[in-house]
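Predict the holo structure. Ligand: zinc ion.
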Amino acid sequence: MSPDAHADATTGPDASVARYDPLAIEPPIASRWVDEGTYELDCAGDDERFYALTMFPYPSGDLHMGHAEIFSIHDALVRHLRMTGHAVLNPIGWDAFGLPAENAARKRGENPDEWTRANIEEQAASIRRLGFSFDWSTRLHTCDPEYYRWTQWIFLELFHAGLVDRKEGLVNWCPGCETVLANEQVVDGRCERSDDLVQRRPLTQWYFRITDYAEELLDDLDTIDWPDRVKSMQRNWIGRSEGAEITFEVADDSDDEVVVYTTRPDTIFGATYFVFAPEHPLVLARMADDPGYADYLEEVSRRSDIERQATLGEDRRDKRGHRLDFDMVNPFTGETIPAFAADYVLMDYGTGAIMAVPVGDQRDFEFARANDLEVRVIIHPTDDEGNHLDPLDPDTMEEAWVGPGTMVGSGEYDGMPWQEAKAAIIDDVADKGWGRGTVNFRLRDWLISRQRSWGAPIPMVHCASCGPRPVPADQLPVELPDDLDWTVSGSPLAAHPTFAETTCPDCGGPARRDTDTMDTFVDSSWYFLRYLSPTDDTRAWPREKAGAWLPVDQYTGGVEHAILHLLYARFFVKALRDRGHVAADEPFQALLNQGQVILDGSRMSKSRGNLVRPGDVSEEYGADTLRGTILFASAPEDDIDWADVSPSGMNKWLARVWRLNLELGDAEVADGGADVDVAELRRAVHQRILAVSDDYDQFKYNTAIAKLMEITNATMDAERAGVAGGAVREALDAVLLMLAPICPFITEELWQRRHGASVHDQAWPRADESLLEVDTVDVIVQVNGKVRGKVAVASGADESVVEAAAMADDNAARFLAEGEVRKVIHVPDRLVNFVVA
Ligand code: ANZ
Ligand code: ZN
């Protein structure tokens, strides 16, 4: 009988062995775990604390494959940690405010609260059914007043720390979502949610001053163990650039001076002209009597910033600028250079004036060509390794050189790599009193107002005499009314007849509540803190507990949060630390991003109609098969194409594990089999214990499963060779213990049956090193029948191993080199003879 047919336990040779029936064994175990609070954290022992966090789900419907995947990874990690002596905090909650609920309310007249809670219950039931070992006593929903009361409290804490601003500005408006968006939510000019083209509107809104932490947010990336890709996305988003402000004098007998802002002080010897923003005050003053200039200014004012900054086609280039009637002096060369106004220099960026370097900046280059200005070469291009490329020719070059290089024509800086020259010039600028080094960030403050109503109300009131005032903390929460009219156009909260009516907390006069809600990323920026005491109604979290548990030791979740959520949460922890509420500098010490689950190469989505639901698999084969299939399919970081996976294959293997345990696992069975066969099985098992432990430490559950399969194969080989009793039970136990984090039900059921205890309470197995050693034997090497050497190889080594060892033997190799090997005669453990001709 072939092993495969044999494995199909329905027709096994021993009719007394019950068939593997996951649909019967899993649900009672799942219910027991919830009813008995099995995974509620117990910190009693001296187990090492470990905070394992997975990004809490958004309740958009039932769990999708992405959830099943990340929870399978996360739960394997958590269960393994428990078996290796950790007290694991493993909480669960829902990111329950947000637009989809509100849109469903608008479209289908459903109450967002009911819609959200129904979806949460559906997801909670699936999470339990799939056996994910969350601590249900931590459960929270960000839409509960008991939660958002503290979201509002944090807003006030930030307000009192001076980290909340009310600013008027051009904001991103998404017409589809009918709300403003943060910069982080605009991708290529479109809303990251709805894909609508984002409009710019002038609005007065609330901002969190995340830019106050720009430097620290950047520097501390070096202290956390996150994927490089995520760190570099954050680095780019924060966008630190070093540069200088350098003072240029006007070349006349006035004492007028103008400061420029540059990120490339190293190029100053190539500054062949000077450009002001057309609206620069010094220019307006000096050109006041020039009617031609007034016309030019008028024309420029009709262009948008974006048009002004664009590089232009040949035909329009000459329209950009206006020659001014004075010159400037380059402090480094002492040269007089012509001054222009040009539209591509903006007044509200840097200092509103630049030194123009045609050789190194594309817009300067185009402007120089259009106006016959000198292009002066001050850099000799190199590749990234510093090897010189062809020198630039100012007469024939067609675009600016923006790559690396070494300095030429730059006085004492000649020969320096550009970065070195930049540092030296910044130092010299300061020494000579011509300016100073500066640091700039691309990061902008976080706009948190949303004109939406399924969110946490902003706890501010607007008083005609006192202005915007914070709601006192003891009046929180500012609750969402439960009678909002979700069908109005615009914001239901703003349209509510009484919500806004209040009195000013300072003067007692009539005042109006702010009717915006907070960006839901505010809710999710601190949920990992609330998990420490989700039902405490006296404080957001106990400081001591935050001290003990933060930072989160391992965070798991999607790379789509690389910037938004992960950056905001980092900002919150730093700001809350500075208010004395937490001790940690960072929220998440380590981060694991899972790959995507795709189908036939494309993303699964409802609209594409190519969804595979986790339930499709678990209802047919059980939760263990679903979890095993997901984790076997790839390493966690890699994508899984569902077209390539085989739930039925996984199910067959689990059925084999089942059969082997019931047939061979009986504690009464006496030891049997030849010593070599017993030793071989034990060695196979203990080698795998070592290797699988390693895989678990690196989250390589796919290769771990492959090795567990090798143990079941070795067990069947041993059985056929007559091995029975302790060695076989040891192999069966090793598989159950190391499979328990991945397939928690079958392993629990079998362990209970064979040992009368829970597999999940067992310690992780340890390899017995003494069993790993392999006997070696000396094999004689002959070439054409003459003994030419002797090699030591593992007993039982096959021909290819022996041949490789012989080739590596100096003496044998010399004779082997005399011709071509025509034939190999191998007598295992004794002799190998090469016939060479
Ligand atoms: C000289 C130079 C030489 C520059 C070179 C670049 C390349 P970021 O990195 O975005 O901050 N700049 C400065 N102020 C400006 C303004 N108000 N409007 C338009 N452009 C302005 O850009 C900094 C660079 O943009 C500065 O460095 C300046 O040009 C220009 F090979 O100075 B640079
Ligand atoms: Zn007032």
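Residues 241, 261-264, 267, 277, 344-346, 349-350, 352, 354-355, 357, 360-361, 440 surround ANZ (ligand 1) (CB under 6 Å). The chain has 27 helices and 34 strands.
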